[in-house]
Amino acid sequence: MSRDRRVTAALAAAFFLSGAAGLMYQVVWGRLLVLVFGSTTIAISTVLTVFMGGLALGAWLGGRWIDRVSRPLIVYAAIEAAIALFALIVPWALDRVVPIYRMLWEQWSSSPAAWMGIRFAVVVAVLAIPTVLMGATLPVMSRALARDASGLSSRVAAFYALNTAGAIAGASTTGFLWLPAFGVTPTLAVAAACNLAAGAAAWMIARRGAAAVSGTTTPPPFAGPAIDPRLIRWVSATLVVSGAAALVNEVAWSRALSLVLGSSVYAFAAMLTTFLFGLAAGAASGVRLARRWTTGLAGLGSVQLGVGAASLLTIGLLSSLPLVLIGAIQQVDFLGPRAVPVVQFALAFSVMALPAYGFGLVLPAAIHALVRDPRTVGGTVGRLYAANTVGAIAGAFAAGFLLVPRLGVQATLLAAAGAC
What we know:
Largest sheet: none
Helix content: over 70%
Number of helices: 13
Shape: globular
Number of strands: 0
Structural class: mainly alpha
């Protein structure tokens, strides 16, 4: 293996570890806030909203200034080290917040709206810095990969797919291995070690001036046509809608599947793992498919149409699941108690996998359509990622509080498919 390939592989491993650490923190923070808020649903919803909001803000802020930095890998290394530091501080900060939280409870608990705002503000104060730093990692790494225009969009999309795969590994191992076996503090230490390892790899590569990352301090001039700013705005709007549709689908699927599979930890884990697996598989496939699309916008449009069609198929599948569940359990009853989780995962996969795969293709398709100029890659990627994440936040809120309660699962899925 050549030196350039070794460098690229080392950075890829670093970005995988970064994605794993991010979801490890999310799971642990949700567990810690249960102890403070006393409600699993409220704690997880608040952490998810603040976590995704921080990612969106970090992606936007990081993309705005990273294209002006001559040594992006040094910046990336510093960000990873800072994430580890602030993430380890979070339990200490929560301990200090508890007395203040109790005092505010005595004054404001009679007003549900005010109390919800106070609770959200407390979480923002504790989690804002590490989540914003996490959001900045994708545009910063994208800028570090911008050694030239050739294959740039494929490199960025491939690293995004690796980061998503790391997120799956982090979420699954934390919920099923690290937390049950070792507890909060060792799990946080493992996540922080992942960040530090990623930062150390980037720092050593930057110090050695590896050509595989950036042979010059400033990317070479781009000879191709400039991207129309209006096109960037339209594609960003598309990603807002797509991100919203993805989370609307996830909430609707979870509500429908919970009626069939139950609300156990294993059923929820099966649904979450299937959704994340579909996103990661779609992102990985998008790297290869994007190379075949002569027009990036046509590819993005095709993906959105495909996702809409796949979402419609799930409506028919959901209605037949109760009978399928009974028949499947009877077929695998020789497995004993282990049969139920296996069937739960299989049914969740049959409903969610194909649309989730399509949603995973969306961001790589958008990157292929817009990422051309190495000098502006950080800003473009940051804007696209932020738009997709903002849409996801809006979709999760709309589905949970407006669409599913008022329209029902079927109409909600139809609305999301129409949006695509």
